From TrEMBL:
Residues 6-147 form the MABP domain. GO terms for biological process: endosome to lysosome transport via multivesicular body sorting pathway; protein transport; receptor catabolic process; regulation of epidermal growth factor receptor signaling pathway; viral budding; virus maturation. It comes from the Eukaryota. It comes from Pelecanoides urinatrix. It is found in: Cytoplasm; Late endosome membrane. This is Multivesicular body subunit 12A. The gene is Mvb12a. Residues 194-243 form the UMA domain.
Length: 251
């Protein structure tokens, strides 16, 4: 059997013949050594019987997975939490079974480990990395278990924050002067010739500017928007468009 070791089994069953297994089930027809894996007449059918497994395929919603398999005598009680392996076709009433296969199923989210593969060998062979779960006819039955990999939750994007400086920066069109109004959030204290400055300052800075206490701006020459447009032949279309699109929370 070509085992899909990355996918947990979703079922283990009997099949009276390889063609008796429904779609979605894989019949174990050969042993690890290459011998026919017909479990013999003890299965209760004239032609013998085969173990088969299901991996569920691509499911819209993950179903239960096989977390354990037991091979017990027909005189042993059914283990709690296990179900008897189904048979294909349905078993005939009154047919005796010397051995029975029981399967434990759990939802994928609740399963920590699961069965990923089942193989058959001769009774004398050891199979590394597999656990022997019982014998039937002239064969030993082995299963391979492993941890269930849970899907990672989708990443949650961190909320975007706006710095204090950006919150204080506001670009708004001035309908009276066709200028861009700039509310400055820095520690600006003085700027001469305010009557020629093509922007307005936040009211809390106006009193400080009138004192003329900061000489660092004494030689500052501020050009009007009209002067810049004339000198560089630039109409500030991009800037006006960006200013018109700024969200209210930034302004």
């Amino acid at each position: 059997m070509a085992a899909a070791e990355q996918t947990p089994l979703t079922g283990v069953a009997w099949a009276a013949a390889p063609e008796a297994a429904p779609a979605g089930w894989t019949v174990i027809t050969v042993t690890v050594e290459g011998a026919a894996a017909n479990l013999g007449k003890g299965f209760g059918h004239k032609g013998g019987g085969y173990l088969c497994v299901s991996t569920g395929g691509a499911q819209a919603a993950p179903g239960p997975v096989v977390t354990d398999v037991q091979v017990l005598s027909d005189r042993s009680p059914q283990p709690a939490g296990y179900t008897r392996a189904p048979e294909f076709p349905e078993p005939r009433t009154g047919v005796s079974r010397k051995k029975r296969v029981y399967v434990k199923l759990l939802p994928l989210d609740a399963a920590e480990t699961a069965v990923f593969d089942i193989k058959l060998t001769s009774k004398s062979k050891a199979l590394p990395h597999y656990m022997k779960i019982g014998e039937m006819g002239s064969f030993a039955i082995w299963c391979k278990k492993g941890p269930v990999l849970k899907p990672s939750p989708p990443p949650v994007p961190k909320p975007r924050t706006i710095s204090a400086g950006l919150k204080q920066l506001s670009l708004q069109p001035d309908s009276d002067h066709r200028y861009v109004r700039l509310h400055v959030g820095a520690s600006l204290t003085s700027l001469p010739a305010m009557d020629r400055v093509p922007f307005t300052l936040h009211p809390k800075f106006e009193s400080k500017l009138s004192s003329g206490s900061n000489a660092i701006f004494a030689d500052l020459n501020v050009k009007s928007l009209a002067d810049i447009e004339k000198e560089y032949n630039y109409a500030f279309v991009v800037e006006r468009t960006a200013a018109a699109r700024l969200p209210p929370s930034v302004c």
